Structures are given as structure tokens and as C-alpha cells.
Amino acid sequence: MNASLEMFDEIDGKRLLAMEPQEIRWMQNLKKAFYESDNAFSNGHAADLAFPEICKAVDVAATLQLSLQGPVSNWTPPTTKNNKRKFIDFVHCEVPTSQNGGLDIELIDARTHEPVSYSFGELIYAIRCMVHENENLNSDENADYHVTLDWGVPKHGLFGVVRDGRLICNANAFWWRLREVLAKFILGTEMFMAFERGDGSFSIHCDPELKSVHPNDGRHWLIPQRKSELVTPQ
Fold this sequence. Notes:
It contains six helices and seven strands; from the N terminus they run ααααββαβββαββ. Helices cover 42% and strands 11% of the residues. The chain starts with 12 loop residues before the first helix and ends in a 12-residue tail after the last strand.
């Protein structure tokens, strides 16, 4: 994890230890979706489940983050409006916006045939919406959309290729980057809670091998299956 702690702005340890029951459930749901995405990746089902689950995790994390920025007194859950803005803002707490030197790409919308610009967070949200609609975005199956996913490229390969206003994403690279953002939020939350409790030791280390945050309290890491990080899921 890098040194930036922007995703924890307006959140302190005391507030974390005073989580509402609903916030605790959100944290568990976040860990579960994170785990299910890892499990799909490691077991060769990335093309079917890895992105739906990791986008679900981002949805929950964005809601939880916003909730934790508010006081416990007279607590109410965040509004269900502006979910797109919440999702994108959460991603850009860690990934630079186009205004700050991050991704800025123009494509041709497959539905309207009009030009559309994307930051990294906006691109991920577009993917999230399509997989939520059960659309097939696998590039090797000739998906009819202006953003498709190629799971055959190693994560350290090209981030993507644009052809005729359509982007073929390096699905491994996109997935791993989202995973890093979520792991930082989960582990950072637990670190601040441990520090506030006065625990004698704690770790914020993210092992580069494929592991997963376990959804049950007390077992933060589970190794579902050891594989090289450059394995190409089938």
C-alpha cells in the first residue's frame, strides 16, 4: 500500500470502533465479495465472476466509507441516490482522476454512437453497470460494447488497446488495481481500529501472492489456492 490515506479522510479510530450494526454488516459483505472475487480468479472463473464480485465490493466499500465519515449520534444510512458518484469517488480516493494526471480516454458509445470520455473510475463504473445487467464483456467472444475485457493478457502487459473507438481492457490489470484499492481500505480500517484499541502489534502488509481477506472476523487472510500472479484464468 502506498502512503496516501485519502480514503480515510474524516474517519478516525474512535469512529471505527463505534460502528453501527449495519456498518459491521457492510464490512462483512465487503469482505465476502472480495473473497468471492479472489476465489473466482484463483479457480479459473475470472471471466464469469471476478468483475461482478469485485464491483459489488466497491459498491459496498463506497457506502461504508461515506457512512463512517458521519457521526454516530443520530446515525442514518447514506442515501441510495448518487450511487455512481459514490462508486467513482471511492475509486479516485486511491487512483488519480483525469484532472490529476490519471486515465483520460475517449471512446465511441456502442449504444448512442456518440463520443464519451472516461476516467479510470468512470471506466470501471461502466464495466460495473454492464456486468450488473449480465452483459457479456469478454473480448474473445466478440462482446458488442465499447469496453470489453481480455483475460488473456498478463497483468503487467498493456493496460488496454483502443480500436475504432472501442477499448479492449487488460482485465487482469484492471482487476488487480481494484483489488489493491479494496485491500487497502479493508486492511487500513483494521489497522486504525487496532491502533485505537492499543493492540500490541498489527500488520498492513499485502502479500503479492494471491490471497484473500476472509469474511469471518479473526481470520483476515485465507489462501484459497497458490498460483503465480501471472496465471491466465481460463
